[in-house]
């Protein structure tokens, strides 16, 4: 056979090898080793996470402005897909507070568009994974992330105050929401206020009990008591919602409608069908696919990125904690396929949940198969428990949401940024403040501000000037075209525009990157030095392939130095 044919054949065999298949289907790496112990722990973790997922999914649908069943529609596909494609044993995919807020900001509570948004986000995420574009997430800096999460927590948390108070007719825009919430306090329903405050108090108490369980100051319990406290505290959301629903049902049975309840919901599993590519408004106007996508605007870029960022950050954190590694691009693929397939069961965009992932890890899950059990619980809830959700008080769901987002307000990070680098407060502040206007604009504004700071550092590299008879300028970083004018200005003002002109040694020990624009400017500077009878010398160059042109220029400069008999030997000997 021709050698080319043999090469193609070898490539095909390599592509179809079992190791390649395992990289695309990580389930193949742990399924052959699966045993009864792993099954027992996965079932326990799946049950625990499932009892946390159901009330949170119902609550997050409220944040997204969608009927509560859409939260459950979005909560089960991730468990099945991630078992096949995920590389973290701990991560659970499903609706989260941040993704729900982003979804609401883009689709405004319209179910059909939320489902279509899930499909488009999934396609973008899957394409990014296949093209290995995960590095783009590196351009979203930590101050931007913290500014967004803090703002989202405030927006989501305050948005639930109206449900705690039982108020109606509150606008969704944050500033108007704050104004009208305070203006309508006299209209608050006593039943909702009492129930909401009690639910908040109970959730906080159980959360503190779980937090202090392992501390030195905690009272000594028996092993059984510790497990009981941990179990009750972990399932606190489900217990509080069930208890509140029983209270609401009891009052309603006696004809006292003192609580604002969820009301009628669709029963049964969602139909498996392609997401709608058009929509119809209330007045009968047909909105085409192109018009819907145009209406999504910047949200179509922000939501996929934030979903990936949130999930990968969670996966990396728990992989480090539990001593294993993840494949970031494979995680992108898992999230993308989850959103694509989720759109066929009326889900809105999902990502990794930090709270539920923490519960999963603490329960001792061994493999991603725990997600199958969680998804089964969600499906059973959809099939048989939807009529019971009729009596869930909105105040109890609001309490669950407030307790879930409160830890996201990290005020300590401001003090840390102030101590380490004050300029980092700029993208933080821009993201935080603009997110109250439009969430996606806040993220875009923060990324833009981070980009400006990054470009400013490139345009203003650190230059340390010292006088050794000849000026020595030590460059603190690489030289790129934005720094051209700044470097030229320093050399002119320090050496060429003084009387008499002075020779300069550029210490390039820290310079590992240079581009053509800088080379062109150095050539011009060389001619200026030549006209004035002084020298420009490079020292301690890092001779690498990408700096070869600079090395050639150095030879030319050293030749000119010899030609003009510059007395630089003493200075150069220091390098």
Which features characterize this protein?
single chain; 575 residues; mainly alpha; Transcription Regulator spoIIAA; 3 domains; 5% strand; elongated
What layout of secondary structure does this protein have?
Blueprint: H1 3-15, H2 18-24, H3 27-30, H4 36-63, H5 69-73, H6 77-85, E1 93-94, H7 97-107, H8 111-130, H9 142-159, H10 161-165, H11 174-183, H12 190-211, H13 223-234, H14 236-253, E2 279-280, E3 286-287, H15 289-296, H16 299-321, H17 328-342, E4 351-352, H18 354-363, H19 370-385, H20 394-405, H21 412-420, H22 425-434, H23 439-459, E5 463-467, E6 471-475, H24 484-496, E7 504-507, H25 516-532, E8 536-539, H26 548-563, H27 569-572
Parallel strand pairs: 6-7, 7-8
Antiparallel strand pairs: 1-4, 2-3, 5-6
Characterization of the model:
- The chain is mainly alpha-helical and 575 residues long.
- The chain has helices at 3-15, 18-24, 27-30, 36-63, 69-73, 77-85, 97-107, 111-130, 142-159, 161-165, 174-183, 190-211, 223-234, 236-253, 289-296, 299-321, 328-342, 354-363, 370-385, 394-405, 412-420, 425-434, 439-459, 484-496, 516-532, 548-563, 569-572; strands at 93-94, 279-280, 286-287, 351-352, 463-467, 471-475, 504-507, 536-539.
- Strand 7, helix 25 and strand 8 (536-539) form a beta-alpha-beta unit.
- It is elongated and about 100 Å long.
- Mean pLDDT is 83; it is low at 1-6 and 561-565.
- Pfam families: STAS (PF01740), Sulfate_transp (PF00916).
- Its main location: membrane.
